[in-house]
């Protein structure tokens, strides 16, 4: 077994750790879990640190459990939240759990015959028949309100740091999460719960319950909340979360997120979000520092994470799309793309407009199309100026005459006009 705590430490993934945790992990194969609330039908990259903890845990020879909060998800964890969450229906939660189950299989080995094969559990299975009276009697009496009020997740909501108080429903969350640890400790011999640093209060409530109910060993470990070097929130873009599901974030956009991180962030993220060894990472950082403009770290980070979350095929397609969008692609290369591949690259990633096909058959002046029929340029004057300055392309060929009409003969796949302003700004016109 490798030293799991040391593995987390050098990767920058260790925040708080309960005394005795490292000794327990070095003593024997240990079962540990991370809880995930299925509040959506996809994980986003904010979940990745917890999932990577489980991945590193399994690689170090220990047994990971991913707990999906089918029951606790009905309530919503108040940790770090400024307002009460919307409660999800049972049907929605079932759907979300199934989708997340499929995503987790990209990270953990559930099918191994080894003793440390990963397991997936859903706390709804043991909470659905637990009555309120039984829970209040068996669990509620063991933890004082004073103890619960002392937790940061509760104090912040009561002390006016956030905008409102907390319902009894959310107040009970830490007891429910604590009972999950009790259940897994009794039924799965799970001795360690892990999570983000904002979960420390909930996790230690679990260790306290185990101590009072069974006296068994129980440990806690958290990772820091991931931020960007400039202090901004990790994983947020202009369009919102970066999701692991291609339904919400295309593999190309996912790849581009990692390609565009800063040098400082790339040095941290490649340790946290990949399984590369310390030697490989130190060598990559050295290579990157010798020639930062080559973006060696970002390229390797984007490759590793895209292949892990999606596939090598998706990674290769993202590279192809990047080369077409930002490289020296020719008109011939563009014309050779199938409609499906063309739309994979441009349909989701560039601003698009629609015009009637009949209008193109009759011919449209470029300036009318660019400044009046679309908003590609704010005025005909600006469109004319850029065309005459040789800074505007149609289908990867320079558009040089602002007076020559555009017709259906210019269409790619009989349907599309692809305009390019400067190096990076693309616009798609679809003729229907």
Quickly count the helices: 21
N-to-C CA distance: 61 Å
Give the spatial strand order of the biggest sheet.
Answer: 3-2-1-4-5
Query: What's the count of strands?
Result: 12
Low-confidence parts lasting 5 or more residues at pLDDT below 50?
none
Largest sheet: 5 strands, parallel
What general outline do the C-alpha atoms trace? elongated
Q: What number is the mean pLDDT?
A: 89
State the helicity in percent bands: 40-55%
Any idea what the radius of gyration is? 27 Å
What structural class results from the helix and strand content?
alpha/beta
What percentage of amino acids are in beta strands? Answer: 5-15%
Can you walk me through this structure?
With 432 residues, the protein is an alpha/beta fold. Helix content is 45%, strand content 13%. It contains 21 helices and 12 strands. The chain has a 5-stranded parallel beta sheet with strand order 3-2-1-4-5, sandwiched between helices. Helix 15 (296-309) packs across helix 16. The radius of gyration is 27 Å and the shape is elongated. The chain starts with a helix and ends with a strand. The model has no long low-confidence stretch (mean pLDDT 89).
